[in-house]
Amino acid sequence: MNKFRKHDSDRLFAGALLSFALILVLFIFVIISVLIERSWKSITTFGFSFLTGQTWNPLRHMYGSLPFLYGTLISSLIGLVLATVVGGGTAILLTQFNHLRFVKLATFLLDVLATIPSVVYGLWGLFVLVPWLRNTGEPFLKATLGFVPLFSGQVWGVGLLAAGLILGIMMLPTIISVVRKLMDQVPQELQDGAIALGATRTEKVRMVVLPYARVGILGAVFLSFGRALGETIAVTMVIGNSPTISSSLFQPGDSLASVLVTQFLEASTHLYLSSLYEIGLVLLIVAVLFHSVSKFLVWRVSERARIA
Amino acid sequence: MNWKVTVLVILSFLVSSCGIPATTSQGAVTAKSKMMQLTGTGSTFVDPLLSVIFSEYYQATSTEVNYQPISSGGGIGQIIAKTVNFGVTDVPFNHVEMVSAVQSGGPIEEMPITLGAEAIVYHLPQVSTPLQLDGQLITDIFLGKIHRWNNASIARLNPDVKLPNLPIRVIYRADASGTTYQFTDYLSHISPVWKSDVGVGKAVSWPVGIGGKGNAGVAMAVRSIPGAISYLEFSFAKSSHLQFSWIKNRSGKFVGPNFSSITAAANQSNIITPENFSIVNAPGRNSYPICAYSWVAFYRIQQSPIIKSELNQMLRWLVTKGQTYARQLGYVPLPKRIRQTDLSLLRGNWE
């Protein structure tokens, strides 16, 4: 009798848990189906050319998402490079050279950085970073590297570079904290062994710590990239909101998430709204695609490490 | 729970969530006691004016008017979805919107409720006197044909101003807006090139420049970027303390946006209809060339007689007594003739 009741309550509990889990499944289904249903008109009207079209002109009913895709990827890529170099370096400093008194302060500041809302990053970008880029940073790059198309053209301050820098700064706390945890997990015996064999600290980092943690680092980098793809408000404030494709990082651009937040509320015609829903769908697909690729990469690297 | 049930549950959720029709709350009336409530939504431009007018209206009649300033396009959308009693838009319904509205709830009535203008705002640190611009120059700037502030054609119109050697940075509205519609309408009246290459609309493909979101975003961009130029609702330009230019009107006189020049422009057109509503580039010596009306829209046929008479009474108050609050808030009251047209529309509809 007692046993039977116990069994019953287990079932009840499991059922409740299942229903919670189902909500999650349901959520994903609803989001995807609504996105597809709402963007159907745009999908059927433009087909594949929605992804390759370079013109976004609501007045002429021409909707191509390539400028937004381009802006999203380029700005995220700039951020990624910045965050990986600076963040990776900081993480190495904090874990491998941790006798420095600086570590405690840096850790505290990183926690602060991680809690700042993105709109504050955006404001800082608009009022501090952008004027600096316009008056000092970009003119300097133009004067020294102006022969490269990436650093040519009119200097605005706002644009792909500003968006990328802001994204990079926003990614820093995540990258640093994850990479730090990974490096802390490198077995002490291996590290001591390297030192015992006569390696310098730098050689130990290069030959033992980084190879051991590289899978996780790759994962952290991709995780941050995925976050950068969908970052909205901070990017909107500094990217320039101009749906154009330019080879210069100084030029204004636009991103998928940003065009949604700027244009969605006012979109009046069915096709316009539908195209914006498709932008949302594209953003979702890009994010999922990226997530899958990163999972696969991490899996492959860890698999190879396991075999070796 | 077996898997069939699970699938069924998921499917039923999907069906119900995809197919929810827009709920009709046209009878947004609280039946309790005699307190009435009307709901409206739309243009953000008129919000400061409407919030004062509706609060005064509540004092006078104890009818509550709940206005949500989401956007002109939003106002049109909510009218089509029949979720509000009235919508406010800076540009009347276009053909496509009208067709959807008629399918949704029958014929739409639209009438002007206030008058506004657009200022050409700019950011030139060393320049204190207002610049003088003409339509062709503004068009060339926004087409990207003029690149620097000390360009000869700007200097020719401003002989007394020491123009800085700064790049011209064009700022536009990134979101679709009535403000953009009116500005591009003006440029199209001036320039056939603009009309054919860019066109008139709430959102166009801009040849040069960067976008700011909303009036506030544009104002912030202009304030922070030296050499910036943009267009802003006049009352907004004034309250954000930006420099704005004088514009050469059709009579060849340079006119700044102000109470009398906007009124003068509006007085040039006696008949304003939702089909023929543009008053940009108005003739007249004192007319400011970029002016426009804001419109209220509602269904001619109302299901509830109570709502119908309340709406009628409120709108009548809005275009008569309500207009007296306009001036102190930086808006321009409707010209007398327009007010009379509004009143006769309301009379024809309800009596």
The count of β-strands of chain B is 12
The value of Rg of chain B in angstroms is: 23 Å
CATH top level assignment of the largest domain in chain B: Alpha Beta
Query: Unreliable runs of chain A, pLDDT <50, ≥5 residues?
Result: none
Assign the CATH architecture of the largest domain in chain A: Orthogonal Bundle
Distance between the termini of chain B: 63 Å
What is the residue-mean pLDDT of chain B, rounded to a whole number? 87
Q: Please tell me the overall pLDDT of chain A.
A: 89
Count of separate structural domains of chain B? 2
Question: In CATH terms, what is the fold-level topology of the largest domain in chain A?
Answer: MetI-like fold
Number of domains of chain A: 2
The count of β-strands of chain A is: 2
Largest sheet of chain A: 2 strands, antiparallel
Q: What's the short version?
A:
The complex is a heterodimer of chains A (308) and B (351). With 308 residues, chain A is an all-alpha fold.
Structure description:
- The complex is a heterodimer of chains A (308) and B (351).
- Chain A has 308 residues and is mainly α.
- Chain A has helices at residues 2-38, 40-46, 49-52, 66-96, 102-115, 118-145, 160-184, 188-196, 201-230, 233-239, 256-263, 270-307; strands at residues 56-57, 62-63.
- Chain A contains 12 helices and 2 strands, in the order αααββααααααααα.
- In chain A, strand 1 (56-57) and strand 2 form a beta hairpin.
- In chain A, helix 6 (118-145) packs parallel to helix 10 (233-239).
- The longest helix of chain A has 38 residues, at 270-307.
- Chain A is globular and about 70 Å long.
- The N and C termini of chain A lie far apart (55 Å).
- Chain B folds into 2 domains: 35-115 and 293-350, 3-Layer(aba) Sandwich (D-Maltodextrin-Binding Protein, domain 2), CATH 3.40.190.10; 117-287, D-Maltodextrin-Binding Protein, domain 2, CATH 3.40.190.
- Chain B has 13 helices and 12 strands.
- Chain B has 351 residues and is of the alpha/beta class.
- In chain B, helix 2 links the parallel strand 1 and strand 2 (63-68).
- Mean pLDDT of chain B is 87; it is low at 5-33.
